[in-house]
Amino acid sequence: DYAGVVSKEAASRFNEQLAQFERETSDQVVVAVFSKMQSDSDIADYTQRVAQAWGVGQKDRRNGVVLFVFTQDRKMFIQVGYGLEGALPDATAFDITERHIKPLFRAGNYDAGLATGIDLICKAIRGEYKGSGKTGAEGKGGGGVFGLLPFIIFIIVLIIISRVFRKLG
C-alpha cells in the first residue's frame, strides 16, 4: 500500500490470506495500491508491464494475478497471467472491479473493497465465482429467452437448409 489507504491490520490480514492461498493452490495473487500511475499509457498496458517486471506467479505456469489500484487516478485493473485467463477472464475481472470493489471504494472503505476483491479473485481462480459475463451496461438490458431468440432462429434455419441440400444432393 504505497498510497496509505489500507489499515496496517487489514494489510497484515491480506498478506497472510494471500500467502495461504498461494500455499494451497500455487497461484500467486498480489494487491498493489499506489496513489498514481507512473505513466501516461493505457492502464492495461502499464499494469501488464509492471506485473511482468515483478514476475508474479510461477514462470512456467504464468499463474499470477495482480489487483492494481491507483487512488488519485481513480483507476483499478486486474492483470491476469496467461495461465489463469480461463479461470479469471476479462469479463469476470471487470465484474469484480466494477460491481464489487468500486462501490466500497466510493464509500471510502478501501479495506472492505480490497477484502472483497481478494476474496472474489481467489474464488474465481478456484472456480467458485463466475462473473455475469456482461458489462454493467449489458447486464441492464434485455436477455433471457428473448436474448437467445435470434440465435435459435439462426440454428433452425441452418438445419432446414442442410436438410434441403441433403435431399437435393
How would you explain this protein's 3D organization?
By secondary structure, the chain is mostly helical. The chain is built from six helices and three strands; from the N terminus they run αβαββαααα. Strands 1-2-3 form a three-stranded mixed β-sheet, sandwiched between helices. Helix 2 links the parallel strand 1 and strand 2. Helix 1 runs parallel beside helix 4 and helix 3 packs antiparallel against helix 4. The longest helix has 25 residues.
| Helix count, DSSP H or I runs of 4 or more residues | 6
Tell me, briefly, the overall form.
elongated
Based on DSSP secondary structure assignment, what is the total number of beta strands? 3
Structural class comes to mainly alpha
Spans of at least 5 consecutive residues with low confidence? 132-142
Helix content: 55-70%
Beginning-to-end CA distance, first to last residue? 69 Å
Question: How would you write the strand order of the largest sheet?
Answer: 1-2-3
